[in-house]
Design the sequence.
């Protein structure tokens, strides 16, 4: 990530890495029929952005995939 976004350091580099990891996961997930269901797409995206926006604290009740992005 540092090569792609050379000015990203510290927290900005962490955020950049999180964004690419989430985008990669979401891209693979939405290559199929789910892409035609905007409500489901929004819910899946929101789960990741909620974790990232929480400042590293995963909301209670999430599955194991989403909190992994809180670290």
Sequence:
């Amino acid at each position: 990530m540092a090569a792609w976004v050379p000015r990203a350091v510290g927290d900005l580099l962490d955020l950049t890495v999180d964004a690419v990891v989430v985008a990669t996961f979401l891209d693979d997930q939405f290559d199929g029929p789910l892409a035609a269901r905007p409500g489901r797409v929004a819910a899946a995206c929101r789960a990741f952005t909620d974790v990232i926006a929480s400042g590293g604290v995963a909301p209670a009740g999430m599955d194991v995939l989403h909190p992994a992005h809180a670290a």
